[in-house]
# Entry
Amino acid sequence: VSGGAEPRRGRDLRRTAAGLAARAVLVAAIGLLLGELETGLAIILAYYGVLFLLGLPFLGLRAPALAGLAAAWLVVGPVLSHVVRPELPARDFSSPDLARLSEPGPLLADLLLTGYYPALPWLAYLLAGMALGRVDLRGRRVPARLVAGGLCLAVLAVSISRLCTASPGVRAALLPSRLTTHDELLAVLAGSQHGSTPTGGAWQWLLVVSPHSATPFDLAQTIGSALVVLGLCLALAAALPPAGRRVLAVVGGAGTVPLTLYSLHVLMRTPDVWPEEEPDTFGTHVAVVLAVGAVFALARRRGPLEWLVGWPGRRLTRRGA
# Structure
């Protein structure tokens, strides 16, 4: 959207930024609307909207600068969160919805730092993704480099974190109310932290690699894992014959309409919409997503919500032309 390997400049960059800002507002608005539904889900779209806005100042940068900033923000973002969160309003564990607009301060604190998908620490993900967007991903060497680099990053993050938490002093700081072995501590930390470490907790919480904790090690491990998955997918696509790639494009059509299908999935989780929510309905959701995605891929059509959020950018582009 912003130029691929060659960032846009001048008026083109400003026009792109304006289109992305409008996209961010629309994505966040869809998220707030979905937050009104009774689903039991933590809706991510309002957080995505804020992330899009946070990424606008970096649109003109090339891959090396973006990668460097992502690496720095792996540390800076979690440290900033750890310092600031105790001074913010108490966390609201419900998904952001339209009613929260009446209290913009707590809502902003939720979206930036205290919620399920805190945008400030997660800016590391966005910067890493933008760096990848500035790289030519074609060719046989790139997938191998992504897999090797991602694997090293993920393994190092987990290994260093485990080494740190093996210290009795760290274990005592993390769980001061009881003595634990390292294995017992790891069992406790294996559960999701729901977006952040305990507010007001010890600094040693920044050493854990717990899922969804937004610590430096969690961010590094998940970025590394994402690089491995991306590299393997690129290698698979490159190894297939042309006919196989066409089949893969149909099977993976869901990836071209993610906003529409995410919203459909949320709607399907409401009590009044099929299927009835039971543990074995996961397969039904997957089948629906793949089938609808295949239809859009075969029709070569944009998803309705993708069309909606992209409309301001297209208008700006046509006006500039």
Observations:
- Residues 10-34 form the longest helix (25 residues).
- The chain is about 65% helix and 0% strand.
- The CA atoms of residues 154 and 221 lie 4 Å apart.
